[in-house]
Amino acid sequence: MKRSPLGVLLPLGLLLACPCPCRSGVEFGYTKIIFSSDNHLVTPVSVNHAPVTWWAIDTGAPRSIIDPELATRLELQAVDQLKANPYDADKGSTFPIVETNDLLIGMFRAGRVACVDRSIKTIRSLRTTIWTGKFEKTGLIGLDLLEKYGALINIRAGKIFFSPTGNLGMSRRGYEQMGFTYVPLVVTGGRLVVNGTISGEKCAFFIDTGMPFTVLAESVRRRANIPFNRAGGLKLPFITGGDIPLNSGTAFDFRFGDYDAKGAILCFGPFSFPPFAGIIGVDFLYYRSALIDIGGRALYLKPSTSGR
């Protein structure tokens, strides 16, 4: 399914709703993120002081990944192994885990980090018009690293803040005074989870910044009786390994806690990913100026800027 980028890309220096540490003296760092083709988020990374390459930001990936080509080039040694989970397209496969001595994400030094040594060929074709230099993609920053350093992701502003203490962001009241609605986040089973309802039915969803748009199970659409249109196909290389056909429709009763997402345009596909009803992608998050405060276990959303 081909979709246009999410509006005009923002200058890297623009910081909207800038989060500030609640307590003085808290050390933190940050990195800039840019949109690549198909609305993926990428950021500059240096491994063991090697030249900078680009890594995708993927809250839907439980573990961070480094491409075998880079791991071999830097002579990284395996320290463990990881078996693909049952919902993985490569289920049953085993991948080595290698350890970096020094991982620099933008301006934040993460230091020694364990990464799954696995091909990221599915994101090598990503392009961007913002960056005119070399755009080599060699890895993926997953939820393990984002959670460890209490990441606060501001997609609209194009920044991620990190803290060694996980102590970032303003108070809930401060964000609410800025017009945000608070939604509780839960980190469980390597997923970033929010609970909500669709047509009155209680559902759990996971937030995936590696997914360009929001996709729910077709069975959810049928139970909610949402009218639909055919919407092409979607490739989920790490889940299904191939294309799945999609429908799209407008949700007229869709909520996350106190946040009313009525009018959201959703996609629906014939997949089963229990216990989740679907995946909340970048489109939904971007249009609602989302702040994903992983350290504070909170999602902050504003009314949609797109009417969808």
Distinctive features:
about 300 residues; 5 helices; Cathepsin D, subunit A, domain 1; ten-stranded mixed β-sheet; six-stranded antiparallel β-sheet; disordered N terminus; single chain; mainly beta; globular
What's the helix and strand layout?
Blueprint: E1 29-32, E2 34-35, E3 41-47, E4 53-57, E5 65-66, H1 68-73, E6 78-83, E7 94-105, E8 108-117, E9 137-141, H2 143-148, E10 152-154, E11 159-162, H3 172-177, E12 181-184, E13 186-188, E14 191-198, E15 201-207, E16 215-217, H4 218-224, E17 229-235, E18 243-251, E19 254-256, E20 259-260, E21 264-269, E22 278-280, H5 282-287, E23 291-293, E24 298-301
Parallel strand pairs: 4-9, 5-8, 15-22, 16-21
Antiparallel strand pairs: 1-11, 2-3, 3-4, 3-7, 5-9, 6-7, 7-8, 10-11, 10-23, 12-24, 13-14, 14-15, 14-19, 16-22, 17-18, 18-21, 19-20, 23-24
Describe this structure in words.
The protein has 308 residues and is mostly beta strands. It has two domains: 29-162, Acid Proteases (Cathepsin D, subunit A, domain 1, Beta Barrel); 172-301, Acid Proteases (Cathepsin D, subunit A, domain 1, Beta Barrel), CATH 2.40.70.10. The protein is built from five helices and 24 strands. The strands form three sheets. Strands 13, 14, 15, 16, 17, 18, 19, 20, 21 and 22 form a ten-stranded mixed β-sheet that branches. The chain has a six-stranded antiparallel β-sheet with strand order 1-11-10-23-24-12.
